[in-house]
Amino acid sequence: AFLRWDFAQGGAQPPPEYETIIDGQNLGTVIHAGANTGVDGFTIKGGYAPLEAETYFGGGISGNGEITVSNCKLIANYAHMGGGLFLDTGKVENCLFINNSANFGGGICTRYGETSSLLISNCKFLSNTADTGGGIFNIQSSPRIQNSFFVGNDY
């Protein structure tokens, strides 16, 4: 049995009883991740961080400092910047971004990543939307993106 959704298992999803879902119910950012934080193996949905909110970065996950997000599904989150994920630096690997939306960066919004490494690898970006950057939007950032694909993202 799978204990979490994992690309290493060929993208097979676990039965619902083994999936850990964190639903923000559109009440704010789902996870605020500080420096040196890892988020691994969750489905994160229902995050909401509009411009009018106190924190409008990252509907699903808002990262401050170096964070690692692995083996996660970020689904139907909204934020002014980074519907699924907002981060400055760190690593995003084996994640699936679906139907997230934002003004900037429906799937991910990165910022100021040129001073340190930011790696996005083995991720899928499907049907994310934004006014600018449906899949990813970079602000003074140059993330390395490898083995990832983008389908149906709209800006």
Give a description of the structure:
The chain is an all-beta fold and 155 residues long. It has no helices and 20 strands. It has strands at residues 21-23, 31-33, 37-40, 43-45, 48-49, 61-63, 66-70, 73-75, 78-81, 85-87, 89-93, 96-98, 101-104, 108-111, 118-121, 124-126, 129-132, 136-139, 144-146, 149-151. Strands 1-4-8-12-16-20 form a six-stranded parallel β-sheet, with no helix packed on it. Residues 1-5 have low confidence and may be disordered.
Summarize the structure.
The protein is mainly beta.
Radius of gyration equals 14 Å
Give unreliable regions as ranges: 1-5
**N-to-C CA distance:** 39 Å
Helix content: under 10%
Q: Which range does the strand content fall in?
A: over 45%
The main β sheet shows up as: 6 strands, parallel
Number of strands: 20
Question: Secondary-structure element order, as H and E?
Answer: EEEEEEEEEEEEEEEEEEEE
Strand arrangement, major sheet: 1-4-8-12-16-20
Shape: globular
Continuous helix count: 0
Strand-pairing-aware structural class: mainly beta
Report the average pLDDT across residues: 88
